[in-house]
């Protein structure tokens, strides 16, 4: 009798284990569970401190970097993308300009923008910080894949691969992320 009970309990245990493994596999495939290996790989691939920038931009001090980034905002504002949907989607921003914004992100610098409601589309302003951050990481990956940092400034200024929506998203993120994290602290 005890052998039969042992075999039955072993079968029940194995059946439960099999069900748990199947549930785990299903949740893993749906992306509900991310293994520690994947988390480590994600951290490595998104480590902004390791991104390389053109040496002229890397050599700028933080104040100069902020000034250049603020000048980009002023240009964005003058071009009035909020009221020109066609130009908003065109790739009219070059990699040299975007390098300043990427450098701000790399150095963990906030971009103070006083009147974003008047300049950016409502869809960007209303985005959650998490969505803005996800977009920023996507742009960083694009930067790493497509921008050749060893090119000259003139060559990078001809590299028109960024649209106004991408630039606005980066600026909006840089203007909000520190304020939001302070509020949540």
Summary tags:
two-stranded antiparallel sheet, 2 strands, 185 residues, elongated, mainly alpha
Q: Can you characterise this structure?
A:
- The chain has 185 residues and is mainly alpha-helical.
- Strands 1-2 form a two-stranded antiparallel sheet.
- It is elongated and about 85 Å long.
Summarize, please.
Helices cover 70% and strands 4% of the residues. The chain has 185 residues and is mainly alpha-helical.
Q: How is the largest sheet built, in terms of strand order?
A: 1-2
Radius of gyration of CA atoms, rounded to a whole number: 24 Å
Number of strands: 2
Any idea what the shape is? elongated
Structural class: mainly alpha
Determine the N-to-C terminus distance: 62 Å
Sequence-ordered SSE layout with sheet pairings:
Layout: H1 2-29, H2 36-45, H3 55-58, H4 62-79, H5 85-89, E1 91-94, H6 95-106, H7 116-119, H8 122-125, H9 129-146, H10 153-157, E2 160-163, H11 164-184
Antiparallel strand pairs: 1-2
Helix pairs in contact: 4-6, 6-11, 9-11
């Amino acid at each position: 009798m005890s052998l039969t009970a042992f075999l039955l309990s072993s079968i029940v245990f194995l059946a439960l284990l099999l069900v748990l493994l199947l549930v785990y596999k299903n949740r893993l495939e749906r992306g509900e569970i991310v293994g520690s290996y994947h988390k480590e790989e994600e951290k490595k691939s998104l480590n902004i401190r390791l991104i390389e920038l053109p040496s002229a931009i890397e050599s700028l001090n933080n104040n100069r970097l902020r000034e250049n980034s603020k000048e980009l905002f002023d240009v964005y504002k003058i071009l009035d993308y909020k009221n020109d949907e066609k130009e908003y989607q065109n790739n009219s921003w070059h990699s040299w300009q975007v390098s300043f914004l990427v450098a701000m992100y790399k150095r963990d610098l906030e971009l103070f923008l006083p009147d974003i409601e008047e300049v950016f589309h409502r869809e960007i302003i209303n985005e959650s910080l998490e969505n803005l951050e996800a977009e920023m990481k996507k742009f960083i990956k694009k930067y790493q894949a497509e921008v050749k940092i060893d090119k000259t400034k003139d060559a990078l200024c001809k590299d028109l691969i960024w649209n106004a929506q991408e630039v606005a998203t980066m600026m909006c993120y840089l203007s909000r992320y520190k304020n939001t994290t302070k509020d949540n602290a």
